[in-house]
């Protein structure tokens, strides 16, 4: 893996503005999709603040990522398309991270995507209304801004989502906003593309992919030159933004949409940043390779001014810091672990559906 060089100290992490103590932690929070990439960073943070946490998850990616907090949470292994009535018993608020979480998986099975990301989001909202559960933080996406004219967009932009993933997220947003009249307090967070380490690692997110490719292959592919813009944010900041949205007074955040991002970057800039970081950390030269653009490219920029103005929350962990952290954690890790299909959502879904008929045939042996 090359010679390891001494890194200068990065100093103390800047604060993102999340108050150090929860205003009222004597609550049970239902985290749907809590066993995923963001969930596995969010749940321990909720526990640290003193909340009781119930995770509802289908465990697509297994139970192993929960190991660090499994004995401190209640786990309901269930599908959001069929939420058990008891899942909301004793619950004070909901954070919904469940469903298919990128374009390729949504396109892979648009019907399942619609049921999970659109319908189940709404159904969970209705269940909350019936039970008098008010706070509902929903993980939406900045990809809703894709397709708008170039330039900076805020939450008031006249979005026109077209792809299966973005359309389903928008439906979820609209239905939750509609339920505000029935007493729900929905807070919709449009997250940028996330980076950084999680116990349930995803290497199909651009920064994480670049770090892994730089380490394993010494080459980064720039599709169409990599000039596309993308809002990005660290997974720890996303988790804290969810907590800030959960804890903020209803009159500040109820029925509101917030973009959550650290900065907008061009993909080419990210590649240069990762290549430079890997070269400094390991001495390995990393090549940038121009390849043709795929038919579907995403290109959009947006602003997080509303989040900072309303909640005083400013994502604080830069790509540079997250890359350094990731390098420390995965340099020297066996390549097979970094290419495990479970770290790539679409690869894992394809593999599961490929295996299914075989598993049925060999059921008696297994
Ligand atoms: N990671 C990002 O860059 C990003 C950016 C914007 C928005 N988001 C949104 O944030 C949320 C979490 O993203 P993530 O990166 O943690 O994704 P992830 O795929 O790692 O996690 C999703 C979790 O939901 C669970 N799940 C999926 N379908 C389910 C179902 N039908 N029933 C029960 N559980 C189900 C999975 O098992 C998994 O644990 C998603 O809604 C995603 O759309 C993510």
Gist?
With 366 residues, the protein is of the alpha/beta class. It is built from 12 helices and 14 strands. Helix 5 crosses helix 10 (319-330).
What does this entry look like structurally?
With 366 residues, the chain is of the alpha/beta class. The chain has a domain of 202 residues: Rossmann fold, CATH 3.40.50.720. A 7-stranded parallel β-sheet has the order 3-2-1-4-5-7-11, with helices on both faces. Helix 5 crosses helix 10. The radius of gyration is 20 Å and the shape is globular. The N terminus is likely disordered. Bound molecules: nicotinamide-adenine-dinucleotide (NAD). The site of nicotinamide-adenine-dinucleotide has 28 residues, from strand 5 and strand 8.
Question: How are the SSEs ordered, and which strands pair?
Answer:
Elements: E1 28-32, H1 39-48, E2 52-57, E3 74-77, E4 93-96, H2 103-108, H3 110-131, E5 135-141, E6 152-153, H4 164-178, E7 185-191, E8 193-195, H5 206-216, E9 219-223, E10 229-234, H6 235-247, H7 250-253, E11 256-260, E12 263-266, H8 267-282, E13 287-291, E14 301-302, H9 305-311, H10 319-330, H11 335-338, H12 345-361
Parallel strand pairs: 1-2, 1-4, 2-3, 4-5, 5-7, 6-14, 7-11, 8-10, 9-13
Antiparallel strand pairs: 10-12
Helix pairs in contact: 1-6, 3-4, 5-8, 5-10, 8-10
The structure holds nicotinamide-adenine-dinucleotide.
